[in-house]
Amino acid sequence: MPVLVTPPPRNQVGVQDADRFEFCGEACLASALGLDVQPIVAWLRQHEGGERAVHNGTGTQVLIDYCRSRGISARVVRGPAVQYVAGTAGRGHYALVLVWSDHQGNPVTRDQSAMLHVGGIGHWLLGYGTAGPQVQVMQPWGGRIVAYDLSHGQDQQLGIELDRDVRTGLSPAPPAGPPTRVYVVKPGDTLSAIASREHVTLARLLAANPGIKNKNLIFPGQRIVVPT
């Protein structure tokens, strides 16, 4: 399998109006195409129906429409994410990966997601490779390079392949970010206790998890990025 350029991180949380809208799909496209997020949001407003397009802007068709507006073919792919990402990476392409998530963009099961929002919450990731059962992705909530095992009900088995060759021999890879790992919250955990146990300050832990708005509110099963 060819090695793809690691996608440059794009943080949906840092975009104007992020407090009103979710920009995960737009952030994934921005990363894949080497753009900022805001011009993609502006294009959706102009070409796909104004503010309503931004509310619905992470649907498959509008994301495909944007790619085609830039002369890039894109198509829907289905099946387990670890399989279709392996296939798209084998062709030298990125894939947008749709998962069930919590309010901070962390992949969770559909049932867990449906407890937070009627019908569940969809969230896009940008897949660029696989490692065993894990899918290697750019996580737009916080703009992080991580790997997830999506085989336990988090995977919506729906994605978008971007027909743009991004093998490492074609363009330089961006510098690697600081190393991190993911901790899954257990019953009774607090952020302060996790920080102490992992030998990091609470401030560093919060900085690595920009989606956490209330340091006193975490729940079992939530994924916490731990800087190392």
Could you please describe the fold and organization of this structure?
There is one protein chain. The protein is built from eight helices and eight strands; from the N terminus they run ααααβαβαβββββααβ. The protein is of the alpha+beta class and 228 residues long. Strand 3 and strand 4 form a beta hairpin. Helix 1 packs across helix 2. It is globular, with a radius of gyration of 17 Å. It starts with 23 loop residues before the first helix and ends with a strand. About 2% of the residues have low confidence.
Work out the helix count. Answer: 8
Uncertain ranges:
170-174
Distance between the termini: 29 Å
The coarse overall form would be globular
Attribute tags:
alpha+beta, 228 residues, six-stranded antiparallel sheet, two-stranded antiparallel sheet
In short:
The protein has helices at 24-33, 37-47, 51-55, 60-69, 81-90, 110-116, 191-197, 202-207; strands at 74-78, 95-101, 121-131, 134-139, 144-149, 155-162, 180-184, 223-227.
Secondary-structure map with pairings?
Elements: H1 24-33, H2 37-47, H3 51-55, H4 60-69, E1 74-78, H5 81-90, E2 95-101, H6 110-116, E3 121-131, E4 134-139, E5 144-149, E6 155-162, E7 180-184, H7 191-197, H8 202-207, E8 223-227
Antiparallel strand pairs: 1-6, 2-3, 2-6, 3-4, 4-5, 7-8
